[in-house]
Amino acid sequence: MKKALSILVFAFLLLFLAACSSGSSGEDENAGGSNSDSGSDAEEKDNSSEDNQADSGEWSPEKPIEIVAPAGAGGGWDTTARMAAKVFNEAGIIDQDIGVVNKPGGGGAVGWSYIAEKDGSPYNLFVSSSPILLVPLNGQSQYGHEDFTPIANVIADYAAFAVKADSKWDNLNDLFDDMKEDPSSVTVVGASSPGSMDHIQFVKIAKAAGVDITKIKYVSDQDGGALTSLLNGSVDVYSTGIAETVEQVKAGKIKVLGITAEERVEGEVLSDFPTAKEQGIDATFVNWRGFFGPPNMDQAALDYYEKKFKELSDSPEFADVRAKYGWNEMYMNSQDYTEFLNNEKESIKGLLDELGLGK
Questions:
Q1: Who contacts 127 (Cβ-Cβ below 8 Å, separation ≥6)?
Q2: Is 201:251 a contact under the CB 8 Å cutoff?
Q3: CATH number of the CATH domain containing 201
Q4: Domain that holds residue 86
Q5: Domain end call among 253, 271, 286
Q6: Is residue 122 within 8 Å of 88, Cβ to Cβ?
Q7: Domain co-membership, 115 together with 217
Q8: Both 164 and 282 in a single domain?
Q9: CA–CA dist 253, 164 (Å, integer)
Q10: Hey, is 182 helix, strand or coil?
Q11: Region 295-306: what's the mean pLDDT?
């Protein structure tokens, strides 16, 4: 009887231990399975986040941005670059630091060469205008707008033709009447090279007025002495941007005979400048000004900058800048800008060929 009872107790203990072992194993498996599933879910979530970011194609700068002004300090490119950088930061449009670097020389060619070496970089931009079409066309640069990434145009500036305050000419018709009789009797100075912007903007208006443009005497002074040459009587006419004339007009040292805008621009002093059109000369010249990236800029970076320059153009802060410098709003996105540049190049090429300056 005792033996049978011992056997029964032993059997019961074996069953109890087996049950405990099975339960423990099951809990371990469930715990392990739960951890495994959580890890899998987290990994799947991370991968999904990365996939969504990649699919969205969004990009934003993670280090400072450099904007190159391919000329010296104080000119139109330099002012545009610095004002854009200032508004980008102060208006909170771009959070990253933006530095402006001057790369003067060759009518812009030195700066373009520098940017061409930044192939694909989303951190190197530059500002430009008509010379990026003109300078390559007259053979002074191997780089043209096709070699870069047009991002956006932001403003329209205009030319002004100024003379000394005591000049005998009071308007463009007086000037061009004398030039029709003897074009070479008048010396025109500009800060750009022959065949570039300051030259061509004057030539275009003079041609519309009936002057033989092949005989116009144009002098290039790229060292900042053009205004001095006008004031000391070495030259007769100064072809420049309207903003560059304001202070000297205020000081009573020069007078502006005409500007190349479609209509008068707004602003102190500026609104007094007559257009060529209101003087019966049916021609205008727009010194558009916009921004480019290096060759082969990634589409995501291009999309980012295109959006930011539109915000810049629409901002009240940049509207104040335009008013201060007599600039007009002229925003174009990358696609429209590219088409505009292609058309402008063809138009300008005709003038250069007529002058014998085309390559």
A1: 67, 68, 69, 70, 77, 80, 81, 84, 289, 290, 291, 292
A2: no
A3: 3.40.190.10
A4: 65-156+288-355
A5: 286
A6: no
A7: no
A8: yes
A9: 6
A10: coil
A11: 98
Do the Cβ atoms of 66 and 99 come closer than 8 Å?
yes
Cα–Cα distance measured from residue 171 to residue 210, given in angstroms and rounded to the nearest whole number: 15
Average of per-residue pLDDT values in the chain: 86
Q: Is residue 245 a contact partner of residue 260, using CB atoms and an 8 Å limit?
A: no
**Per-residue confidence band for 249, with pLDDT thresholds at 50, 70 and 90:** very high
Q: What's the structural domain count of the chain? A: 2
What tokens appear for 138 in the block? 């007259």
CB under 8 Å to 161, separation ≥6 — which residues?
172, 175, 202, 205, 237, 238, 239, 256, 257, 258, 259
Contact 359, 194 (CB under 8 A): no
Average the pLDDT over 240-260 and give the result.
Answer: 95
User: From CA 127, how far away is CA 292, in angstroms rounded?
Assistant: 6
What per-residue confidence (pLDDT) applies to 103?
96
Last residue of a domain, one of 234, 259, 286: 286
